[in-house]
Amino acid sequence: MIDVEENRLIPCPICNAVNIDRGNKNICRRCGSAIYQHKNFITEKSWAYLITAIIAYIPANLYPMLITNKFGTHQSSTILGGVVHLWENGSYPIAMVIFFASIVVPLLKFFILFYLLISVKYPFGKDKKVDKHKLYYITEVIGPWSMIDVFVVAILTALIHLSNISIVAGTAATAFAISVFFTLLSAHAFDETLIRENIKDSK
Amino acid sequence: MNKLVIIIAMKIKNEDDLDNYIICHKCFTLHKIIPIKDGYMASCNECGAMLYRYDTKLVDKSLALSISGLIFFILANFFPIVKIEILGHDQFITISKTIFTLIDSGFYIVGILCMFLIFIFPLMILIIDIILFTLLKLRRSKKFTKTLLVLLAHILPWSMPDIFLISILVALVKLIGYVQIDMGMAFYALIIFVLIDIYIVKKVKISELWILRENMILKRSKN
After folding, report:
1. Predicted pLDDT at B34
2. How far apart are CA B82 and CA B89, in angstroms?
3. Considering only CB atoms, which chain B residues are within 8 Å of A15?
């Protein structure tokens, strides 16, 4: 017989099997993956990815996303410029989709991850009013949708490349793709068991 | 509202007894697995997320769906998705053309990222699912199913054909008014593929597959 406290049970991030938390190095008994529990280094990886993503997000907004060559004239538009252009042309739903996917979602993810990373490590975020599991779940669900803008640019580039009219992707496409990629990595590197430990400590 | 969390010391015989428990993937509440009727599902009483299902037909259903998913995926890749007419020229795109145009025009990072997100990972998931469900149906290969399930868990969050489908629609709406648009056959194949993909990726949870594997393979080897 083993005595085990209920709050020492942790799920495996890969296969969701219930495991006993043994402190430093936990190996899942079902799938053999490591369940990270090194107290001091746990958030560093997630921080590093998040900061990379935020840095990449700056050029993504400054450089042009799409360059349209029409009969010798070049016209380039940034992410925000594209949204404004769509809005002025009257396609409100698409303007809103692009605005939501490439501006609201990345910023929301940055803020949520920032808040989660601070709140699990430093005492001032230890309130129980905010449902942190729900916040994390939201970032996981909405995260991939910011790729819409990159895919749209890829499709337009592939569709329209005549000698007179062509659409070329701009520098921002690379920066934006990198930014989204690293936010996704950051969210995956975040260890959800820290949230529960954080709540437990504050009791 | 503050909930009082009571810390209970449980007594279990050995670690394998922990298989009778499940932690909700959404809100981290511990639940004990109780037997339920065929075709029913158990959900978390804190947040309502699905915990596990008892569905005797799940393996057959998923195997059939992943095979048809593969057929539609191949169709979606071989035929043009959209044809447009611009200044008297016909232009079309396929999934591979989208990726290679990006790489040709010097956007290696975006091109390779797109290649993985919309081509390699969806294809890998389908192939893994087909092998996995076939093995589960034959009730064999304890070790290989484990490897497949771990691999599947790693690539699941990186497959985005559904987002690609929405992107096609957004791109087309941007072009309305300038060009004449014809939907290709692959577009409809892609829609069906995405619907199947949503079922086998989002609705069938990884933890469910592990429970299935235990019931189908491990229990038989004990008898």
Report:
1. 81
2. 14
3. 149-150, 153, 206-207, 210
